[in-house]
Amino acid sequence: MSDLFVCNICGEPYIGGEAPDDCPFCGAPRKFITRIDEFSPLWTSDLTEQEEKDVKETVELEVNAAAYYKYVSDSNEKYSKMNRLFKQLARVEEEHVEVACKLLGIDEPEMKGERSRGSAKKDLERDATVKYKKFLARAENENVKKFFEALIHAEQGHLDYTEKELK
Ligand SMILES: [Fe+2]
């Protein structure tokens, strides 16, 4: 029997028999996915100055990652494995940009970024994860903590998969 679920990180809905392991939109772990009646949006609270700075830096990192992944996806034959993989990676990073901008209460930037950072794949995720762990450790706001926890989980999932598949 199907139910309507919502990711409490990105707010995207999902219909299925049960909640997915990871949010298909932002990669948040299952613990953040609830039935619609238990949904509480993440982007409702004020941030400290440091949190605002950290979330802004996150926007920049994610815009660059999304742009790079989109570039790799477009550079590969349509519907090939690389094309599909990098399309999904880009989509998740774009979702992260959207959530971060909602937390900041700002409009989303254009998805441009440094498309030429060719060999950056592994480093992008790894560098971002190191930063997000730092941001999580110094976050005070519960919603900001949840956001970084979800991001770390998502980036780790990308690393696990791409390291296995792209050796
Ligand atoms: Fe999500």
Which descriptors would you attach to this protein?
mainly alpha, Rubrerythrin, domain 2, Ferritin, three-stranded antiparallel β-sheet, 56% helix, binds fe (ii) ion
Main sheet record: 3 strands, antiparallel
**H and E order:** EEEHHHH
Stretches where pLDDT falls below 50 for ≥5 residues? none
List the total number of helices: 4
Strand order of the largest sheet: 2-1-3
Distance between the termini: 40 Å
Fraction in helix: 55-70%
Account of the 3D structure:
The chain has 167 residues and is mainly α. It folds into 2 domains: 3-38, Rubrerythrin, domain 2; 49-165, Ferritin, CATH 1.20.1260.10. 56% of the residues lie in helices and 7% in strands. It has 4 helices and 3 strands. The chain has helices spanning 49-75, 81-104, 121-138, 142-165, and strands at residues 3-7, 13-16, 33-35. A 3-stranded antiparallel sheet has the order 2-1-3, with no helix packed on it. Helix 1 packs antiparallel against helix 2 and helix 2 packs antiparallel against helix 4. The radius of gyration is 16 Å and the shape is globular. The mean pLDDT is 91. Fe (ii) ion binds at residues 7, 9-10, 12, 23, 25-26, 28.
